[in-house]
Design goal:
With 440 residues, the protein is of the alpha/beta class. Helix content is 44%, strand content 12%. α2 packs antiparallel against α10 (280-290) and α3 runs parallel beside α10 (280-290).
Length: 440
Amino acid sequence: MKEILVESSVDKIVIPDNLKVGLMVAKQREQCKNGGCSFDYYGLGFGQSPFHIPPPLSKALGKSANQGHYSDAEGISELRKAISGFNKRHFGLDVEPERIVIGPGTKDLIHTLFGIIKGGVIIPSPSWIGYRPQIYLLDKHFHTFYLKPEFNYKIQPDDLDEFISNLSSAQHTLILNNPHNPTGNVYSKEELEKIAEVCRKHNILVLADEIYALDTFEIEKFTSMGLVYPEGTFITNGISKDRSAGGYRLGSCILPTTSSKKLKADFKKVAATIYTNVSTPTQFAAIKAYEPNDEIDEYIEITRQIHRMMGRYLSNEWNKVDGIKATRPDGAFYFFVDFNDLSSAMKKKGVMNSNQLGESLLSCPHHLATVTGDANMLDPDNFGARIAFVDYDGKATFDNYKKNPPKSASEEVEFIKLNAPRMVKSTDALRGWVDFIKQT
């Protein structure tokens, strides 16, 4: 039999960052084992919430197990109503349930949007890995909008205006990930309003990926793009991050206020064609995740404060290492590290591009698992890495916080050292790697 042929679009994508890092770790483990090194690695690559699922949600899933029937492609009405109320309470958004679509995670919803909405996509870089591969698979056109370190990797309205002015007049969609993966940046209301002005001027749609919204450390400072640009914004969110239920595969998309009946019908039609409906038991269980619930609200607040402590501490410690520049996260569970001051020294050690930076950091004896290069949509000569600060026992840390929450900055440091010793030690590993790179 002849070789089975695969579509050329598949050749354009790379393994997702979590699998890629996992394979790199497995390979390095084998090398270390053969060399007599038994130490594991610092898990700073995989961005998954370390916490347990809130008990009310997991209990609700058990109770809804008998909901085995097919359900509406756009999601059951009870869940869409609960999500409408949730967005009103937390974000001040007035959203009719008819503008809400349920999908099997925000990743699938974003893919569906890319497939439905005509025109090119503007992707700010550094970026989450998931956007570009989906665009490749759909054979859509995209434009990389490089963010500047001198502006802390935030979209600058004047730069965006100039960038869009050089594009064709066809419809485009700007991806706005807020809080931002990989930098941990959070946009203020004023910053969003200025970006919205540019989008209105050029008739640009916005895909607001707000999956980390409730993981904003100072939640009162979070503003949804749907508040300042409701007519042109698609908002995706879900329960994978702030409620630690990534495996449930359930997300939501809020359509713009200007959405036509045809757009809503088209979204439903495509959803029904691709995945029929999100798991019906999961949808009924998720109602509990969106309805008012004191236990879940407390859970979100505790995990938010733990993320704040871990992220701010670790980025501060990494910034103390010579040659390293790390962003200070205000949300999510990532920060971004600029290694470019060490580029000449790295190249002398054979680290010629940003992908090889990840391999070097993981090598023995450093064992730092990160996400670098293509996974962040970086140019090969831009040496940067995403750091996920979730390498600790989430359930034990949660319980310890609830029993005795730290009441001062010094108590927070002690809390971190007690509950996340591997992350604390990662700074020493980084310092050792830098010393190695600088050796002539």
